[in-house]
Amino acid sequence: MSKVVCVGEVMVELARGSDGRFGLAYGGDTFNTAVYLARAGVDVAYATALGDDPFSSEILALGAAEAVDMSLVPRLRGRVPGLYLITTDDAGERSFNYWRDTAPARTLFEAEGWQQVAAALVDARAVYFSGITLSLYSNQGLGRFLAALEMAGSTTQGRRLQVFDGNFRPRNWGGDLNRARTVFAEALKRSSMALPTFEDEVALWGDASPAATIERMTTYGLTEVVVKNGAAGALVHADGRTVEVPVERAVSPLDTTGAGDSFNAGYLSARLQGARPEEAARAGHRLAAEVIMHRGAIIPRAIHEGMRPH
């Protein structure tokens, strides 16, 4: 049980720059987290499906360059990855347009070799996934993914983490809130840690406060819940206690893309390396604060390296 396996979708990213032109990159919520985990020294693999096109080859090369193990990525003939386009307003808030309905990532647990992916989840030190991950799959694919999580949880006597970031996007569920709630509940039952964003929990569940989110999630048996709440900081529940961890400094974001993904990576990497929950939350805040000062979900490696103490 050495690796963290992140599961989801990585797409072609087109982001509009200050000159109005679009720059090409790659990203996706759980992939962004995988990259930041790898940069923190965590042994991490990524599980998705890609096509046999040049963009898919570039995604695989990017993962390899970032020390993310991409061996759990089947390539499907004649398919191409999804695409998303980012625009940001004057306050740095982003809006997205997607072209992903036929992306190969949707068939990860139905494509040839899906058993290898499921086995890797069972053997992993931790599995990290999101509400966006869950929205990708058919009922059959969901059943196989949830079964792998359940098998892992029943065979390792609590020696592993199963980490869920709610990341609820209504459009991904076709407006079917009941199905989303049902699937999220099944995922929470199989998770040990949750890293939700309060805004998403309000949209899906109508939670009145971050404390209400924690109260609801712990009824599923989760022992560690960190509710991200933007500039208001995070509410951390772990080790039987709940504490507020404020952001260390207020910033005016250039682009909020990847804020939650990077916080999750900062938090999870710190916890895996033995940090206390409050210390891990501060690490998450620091990384997220840096990421939102640059365009795109994954900041250049040189900038990230410059954040580390010397």
Name the features:
15 strands, 310 residues, 22% strand, alpha/beta, 9-stranded mixed β-sheet, 4-stranded mixed β-sheet, globular, single chain
What does this 3D model show about the protein?
It is a single chain. This protein is an alpha/beta fold. Helices cover 39% and strands 22% of the residues. Strands 6-4-1-10-11-12-13-14-15 form a nine-stranded mixed beta sheet, sandwiched between helices. It has a four-stranded mixed beta sheet with strand order 3-2-8-9. The longest helix has 17 residues, at 139-155. The two termini are 31 Å apart.
Succession of helices and strands: EEEHEEHEEEEHEHHEHEHHEEEHHH
What's the β-strand tally?
15
Q: Which structural category do the helix and sheet elements fall into?
A: alpha/beta
Question: What is the rounded Rg?
Answer: 18 Å
SSE inventory with pairings:
Elements: E1 4-7, E2 11-16, E3 22-27, H1 29-39, E4 44-47, E5 50-51, H2 54-65, E6 69-72, E7 75-76, E8 83-88, E9 94-99, H3 114-123, E10 126-130, H4 131-136, H5 139-155, E11 161-165, H6 177-189, E12 193-194, H7 198-205, H8 210-218, E13 224-228, E14 234-238, E15 241-245, H9 259-272, H10 277-291, H11 301-307
Parallel strand pairs: 1-4, 1-10, 2-8, 4-6, 5-7, 10-11, 11-12, 12-13
Antiparallel strand pairs: 2-3, 8-9, 13-14, 14-15
Helix pairs in contact: 1-9, 3-5, 9-10
